[in-house]
Specification:
Elements lengths: L1 E6 L11 H8 L4 E6 L12 E2 L9 E2 L1 H13 L7 E11 L2 H7 L4 E5 L8 H10 L1 E6 L9 H12 L32 E2 L2 E2 L9 H19 L8
Parallel strand pairs: 1-2, 1-6, 5-6, 5-7
Antiparallel strand pairs: 3-4, 8-9
Helix pairs in contact: 2-4, 3-5
The chain binds adenine.
Adenine binds next to strand 5.
Length: 231
């Protein structure tokens, strides 16, 4: 998968050199391009923002640098039109289902806004050249799209076949079946007076599967009842 990121903080993404995603880049499963938006701002101060039309607090990202940066990526893109993701608290909420869907794409572009957002015409223009989605991490406000982009790349990247060494570990995790995952235990069987649930030591695989499913349901009911179908 090809991933391009447009940001005013390219150094933020140096963490993508390490861990599973770093390895995926080394083995060629992920091909990453990080673009400094200021390289597409040509005034003396490399300005990327300006005051909002209509007034109001804060600054809005100017369309010209974004247009040039996105054109540079899209003009050089081979194959099918990419998906351009703009992280925004005004977007649809990012889910595991969306991560799964996006993990099958050839090319993703992340446009990281800062300040009060990006001039809307950038999003409208991008939609004429690619499939565009505004995506939110949840009902809270970050300072910009960088942290949201990192989270999405990690969630999507680990679903690309070959990135996670043992694909079975993707099957029983939270949200893969619509429920939260069951609690896990390892050795020792007793630690600081706390025992591992005896069923896990029983060797009875049917009983273990039943117990784990009950734990998933109990946890989901308690913490995230919104995930369960209506009664
Ligand atoms: N940018 C600012 N807040 C955000 C959020 N909650 N999700 C995605 N991008 C954002």
């Amino acid at each position: 998968m090809r991933i391009d990121i447009v940001t005013i903080f390219p150094e933020f993404f140096s963490v993508l050199d390490v861990s599973l995603l770093g390895k995926a880049r080394q083995t060629g499963l992920i091909d990453l391009g990080v673009h400094d938006l200021r390289d597409s701002a040509h005034d003396r101060h490399r300005t990327v923002d300006d005051t909002p039309y209509g007034g109001g607090a804060g600054m809005v990202m100017k369309p010209e640098p974004w247009g040039e940066a996105l054109d540079g990526i899209l003009d050089g893109a081979a194959g099918a039109a990419p998906v351009i993701l703009f992280p925004s608290p005004a977007g649809e909420v990012f889910t595991q289902a969306m991560a799964q869907e996006l993990s099958a794409e050839q090319h993703l572009v992340f446009g990281c806004g800062r300040y009060e957002g990006i001039d809307q015409r950038v999003v409208d223009y991008a939609a004429t050249r690619a499939r565009v989605r505004l995506v939110s991490m949840g009902d809270y406000v970050l300072n910009g799209g960088e942290v949201a982009t990192m989270a999405m790349i990690e969630a999507i990247g680990r679903l690309i076949p070959g990135v996670v060494g043992n694909p079975a570990s993707l099957v029983e995790e939270s949200h893969s079946d619509g429920l939260l995952e069951y609690p896990s235990y390892t050795k020792p069987a007793e630690w600081r007076g706390l025992a591992v649930p005896p069923v896990l030591l029983s060797g009875n695989h049917g009983a273990i599967a039943t117990w784990r499913h009950e734990q998933q349901l109990e946890r989901t009911r308690r913490v995230r009842p919104d995930l369960l179908p209506p009664l």
